[in-house]
Amino acid sequence: MKRRVLPQLLLIALAFVTAGKSSAQDTLPELVKRVKPAIVAIVTYDANDDPLLTGSGFFIRPGQVVTNLHVVRGARRCEIKTLDGKGRVYPVAGLLAVDEDGDLALLGVDVPLTRGRSSELATVLPEEGEKIFVIGNPLKLEGSVTDGIVSAVRELPNIGKIIQITAPISHGNSGSPVYNLKGQVIGVVTIKVTNGQNINLAIGADRVRQLHPGKRKMFTEIAARDRTADIAESLYKNGLDSLWLGNFDSAVGYFENAVNNDPSRADAWVQVGYCKVKQGKSAEAIKAYQQAMQLNPESDEVRNRLGDAYYYSGRYAEAIAAYKEAVRLRPQAADGYYNLALVYFESGDKAQGVLAAKTLQQLDEKLYAQLLRETGRE
């Protein structure tokens, strides 16, 4: 049988139709419709059953909702309202997981399996300038959509990636998911206020991924723990609040007071070192990181941070030693090889730099491309 050949013009027309269908699926209105059933409005109540705070959240799994810890802190009970259709109100049964430093909480909600579509977490870090959108409940305006771009991405010790966005954010947006244009959650909005202005920040999706459900706790258990928190812990938390906002002068004061009250806190020593680096005081940063290293000798993050302080001081040999120890402790971590390759190239050891770069390429193509750009080897 003779094979039928489609005319070339018909093939071109079919290609345009296919392309049109693909692009239509990526429009913002379609994305909003697809992900909105995963979003919830949150209301908390005090011991007198009076409303405390409103916030936002989203289903990460059936019956499990992610929000900010500060939204539910101090509450006696909590409710969620789904946004699909007319919406339904469900009581929150308790807390399944709490992340104090990341300001995250995982809520347990008894909902029918047909309610609460789960959200997909992004596995790739967003780039600066990338378009995003946010769905939440600012000022009780349920399901409001705002859009913008990623204006900055930075990493904080013991916290991870912090994403700054230009999408308008108001109170009530706390706990809102930030989506990329694939409909994946790249972060969770956390409202931070300085000088009366909102700083639009989100904790990265990797931190959310670390929320593993455990034994269910009541809200009163969290409140009780807060009342018994020691001075060093309180100082540390205040330091983190300043650190989120990039206020290093204020943050380092809190962290230094924290280690003065409790010198055994390796996490606080790390934060002191980080702030000192940002202040251009690398020698003081080195001392702080060395204290952290003595307390936590198996931490690759501490070794990488110490290497950074040596690097900024121009002490390349010591930086190399610190980075090599970091990759020994955690061979599959790309950051260590990125740091190692960078300092080798900077010190003039091209051969060792190429070797470290090859390992980096195997572990993380995106970070490898960044290394090439930074060293002018594209």
Overall description:
The chain is of the alpha+beta class and 378 residues long. 43% of the residues lie in helices and 24% in strands. It is built from 14 helices and twelve strands. It has helices spanning 8-24, 28-35, 69-72, 205-209, 219-227, 231-244, 248-261, 266-278, 282-295, 300-312, 316-329, 334-347, 350-363, 365-374, and strands at 39-45, 51-61, 64-68, 77-82, 89-99, 104-109, 131-136, 144-156, 160-165, 177-179, 185-194, 197-204. Strands 1-2-3-6-5-4 form a six-stranded antiparallel beta barrel. Helix 13 (350-363) packs antiparallel against helix 14. The protein is globular, with a radius of gyration of 24 Å. The chain starts with 7 loop residues before the first helix and ends with a helix. Mean pLDDT is 87; it is low at 1-24.
The fraction of residues in strands falls at 15-25%
How many beta-strand runs? 12
Q: Please give the share of residues in helix.
A: 40-55%
Shape: globular
